[in-house]
Amino acid sequence: MRISQVMDLPFETGEGGGGEGGTLASTVLVVDDEPVVLDICARLLERESDLVVLVAASAEDALPILREQRVDVLVTDKNLPGMGGVELVAEARNLQPTMEALMITAYASSESVIAAFAAGASDYILKPFDDLRVLRAKVRAALERRTSGTQVREQAREQAREAAALLAAGQDAPEPAHVALEVELRAYEESSRTVLEGKVAVVGSEDALRALREAGFEVREVAPYAPELETVDVVVVETGDPQWRTLAERLQRRPPDVLLLASPQADLGDLLEAITLRMDLVGFGSTQGASALPEKVRMLLLRRGVQRAQDRLAAALSVFRRSIPTPSA
Q1: Prediction pTM value
Q2: What is the pLDDT of residues 234-254, one digit of tens each?
Q3: At what angle do helices 110-119 and 287-323 cross, to 10 degrees?
Q4: Which numeric CATH code is attached to 200-301?
Q5: One Pfam family for this entry, by name (predicted)?
Q6: Are 39 and 62 in contact, with CB atoms under 8 Å apart?
Q7: Does domain 1-149 have CATH number 3.40.50.2300?
């Protein structure tokens, strides 16, 4: 087992801190019997300064970890030697009911997705990974769901459990329902592969505006109290702007993600307050910071696209469940 240490990267944080222990770090457990996949996943997630990454080569190795310490997100391969990934997710959710689980699979069929959701997973990832950023975005989305306890996700799991029980009892959905769910699965997978577009607004930073435009984003400068801020996908604001706290509080429970830029002269109190407000934070004011900003915005847009696609997938699963005739029908 390998444990990554929380990396001390100045002025970078994410949405972690979702655990009962009250720490800022969140724990991700990756389970796969392929050493290359384990290494890729661990290296990628260890770049996130607020994640602690654990790895295991089998379900049997993972279970003691799940019994002994809190895990915020479980990422497991579906086909494992011995106990399979679906069974591991079910056992892990029994041990830690608030944990989020992601299933790695080479091919997602309606039956495998229903089984994964029924066991307690809330998402899946196709391998080989076409875009490694998708894994990071899906882990981030899972951490948000864990914090918010999204009701839609729990309803999707319940629908999947009912559908799995009916299928096991010999009932089946009509062919059009199977086709519709398969179409939604392919659309969901495609949404994770494509470069996502979105509306980005910048408040009070000409440098950020220039960096994002040079990176090819559709971005515009907006005043702190403009109503249109609530209609964009990502709002970028710098700590040097005197209105950043008021703006962050106003948008905290609204649609857009708020990304705070911390200049090298940023006050430590500002940074701690941003963390308390659970804001995305990225260092700015250097060559490295300027290159990090477009990547962070790209990740936020990808994560939002994944969440929207997941809602559509949950809706399709609900329709599929309702299309299966009950034994008494």
Answers
A1: 0.66
A2: 888 776 666 677 777 777 666
A3: 100
A4: 3.40.50.2300
A5: Response_reg
A6: no
A7: yes
User: Helices (H), strands (E): how many in the chain?
Assistant: 11, 10
The pair of three-digit structure tokens given for residue 121, joined into one six-digit string: 């997973």
Q: What CA–CA distance (Å, rounded) separates 178 from 323? A: 9
Strand partners, 234: 200, 257
Q: Are 30 and 38 in contact (CB under 8 A)?
A: yes
Place of tokens 């490694």: 132
The dihedrals phi and psi of 65, each to the nearest 5 degrees, come to -65, -45
Q: Which two tokens stand for residue 92?
A: 């892990």
| Torsional sign, CA 259, 264, 265, 270 | positive
Rounded CA separation 26/23 (Å): 8
Per-position DSSP letters for 57-112, written without gaps between them = SSHHHHHHHHHHS--SEEEEESS-SSS-HHHHHHHHHHH-TT-EEEEEES---HHH
Residues 37-64: pLDDT tens digits? 899 999 989 888 789 999 999 999 999 9
Alpha carbon separation from 109 to 79, 88, 258 (Å, rounded): 14, 19, 36
- State how far the Cα of 277 lies from the Cα of 246, in Å rounded to an integer: 11
The count of C-alpha atoms lying within 13 angstroms of the C-alpha of 28, restricted to the half-sphere facing its C-beta, is: 30
Q: Which residues contact residue 202 at a Cβ distance below 8 angstroms, ignoring those fewer than 6 apart?
A: 208, 209, 212, 219, 220, 221, 222, 235, 236, 237
Instruction: Say yes or no: do domains 1-149 and 200-301 share a fold.
Output: yes
Run means of pLDDT, 10 residues per run, the chain, 329 residues? 30 38 73 93 87 95 95 94 93 91 84 81 81 81 72 63 69 78 76 66 83 86 83 78 71 69 63 61 57 80 75 76 72
Listed by start position, the domains of the chain span: 1-149, 200-301
